[in-house]
Input
Amino acid sequence: MRRLLAVVALLGAVVVGCGVPEDDSPQELSADEVPFGLLTVPTTTTEPGPVTDPERQGRLYFVDTEGQIVEVEAEVPDQSVRSVLIALLDTDPETLDPGVSSFIPPETTLRRVEVVDDVIVIDLSEEFTSVTSERFVPAVAQVVFTATAVSGTGASLVEFREEGEPIDVPDEDGAAQSDPVSRTDYRGLLAVNG
Output
């Protein structure tokens, strides 16, 4: 037992003796006194992250905590209005950044979409209109901004249908619109950086 205590005491003395000396103020070290190559700049390379083909990048629109419409880039199968709208409707809210959500009811499905002249006709399932009134305007704006963000369609207006029948939708002030709507009808909802 005495031997063990003597070994422990000896090891303690060695450890204390090898410690960093105490100084009352910082001391300057010469370059050869700096340990572990801390003066050299390590060369590191990072692999670039996966790059999404521009043809597969879609601009989807969601709602932030202030009730403003914000753009979110997402990968889509192609640059068709159908693909982008399906991506909007199928986005799992859990995958969005904190503070960003969708006011479109999650059960909503896209029944049909077609472009006729400068109008995108969007036929949605009946769940779309089940959203409460204060959330319906941003939900409509999400669809309008997402559909009209697709380049190459030449369309700037959106006509809404539910189960094949034309429906009125509110503009940003809540006034019912029976004619097709555009981004202009919701410009006050678009976030400044959107």
